[in-house]
Amino acid sequence: MLAQAVEHLIKNIVDFPDDVSVKSHENARGELIRVRVNPEDIGRVIGRSGRTANAVRTVVQAMSDHKVRVDIMDVRH
After folding, report:
1. Is 36 helix (H, G, I), strand (E, B) or coil?
2. Is 58 buried (19+), middle (13-18) or exposed (0-12) by CB count in 10 A?
3. Which of 54, 51, 45 is nearest to 21 (CA)?
4. Chain-centre distance for alpha carbon 48
5. How far is CA 75 from the centre of its chain?
6. Is residue 33 scored above 60 in pLDDT?
7. CATH classification number, 1-74, choose in 3.30.450.20, 3.30.300.20, 3.40.47.10, 3.60.21.10
8. Is the pLDDT of residue 75 over 90?
9. List of residues 6+ apart from 18 with CB closer than 8 A
10. What's 12's DSSP letter?
11. Distance CA 34, CA 71 (A)
C-alpha cells in the first residue's frame, strides 16, 4: 500500500510519469521503497534543498506503523 501511495505522489510531480518505477523491499532495518524517475525529473522530485523528497518521506512515515526508508534515484542507476 505504501509503494502505491508513493507512486501516486511521485507521478503527479514529474513530467515523465511513465518512467516512474516504485519497488518495495523488506529488510532487517524495516521497509525500503526505491523510486526511479527519468533523469530530467530528479531535480523536481528532490526539490530545493531536498524539501520535496523530505515531504514525501514525512507523508510515507506518517502513513506507516513501522520504519520506512524512501530512496530516490534516476533510471540510469
Report:
1. strand
2. exposed
3. 45
4. 16
5. 13
6. yes
7. 3.30.300.20
8. no
9. none
10. T
11. 5
E strands along the chain, which residues?
21-27, 30-37, 68-74
Cross-strand partners of 39: none
> Is residue 77 scored above 60 in pLDDT?
no
Cell of 25: 523491499
Type of residue numbered 70:
V
Q: What is the pLDDT of residue 28?
A: 85
Strand partners, 25: 32
d(CA 23, CA 33): 6
pLDDT tens sequence across 40-67: 999 999 999 999 999 999 999 999 988 9
C-alpha cell at 73: 534515484
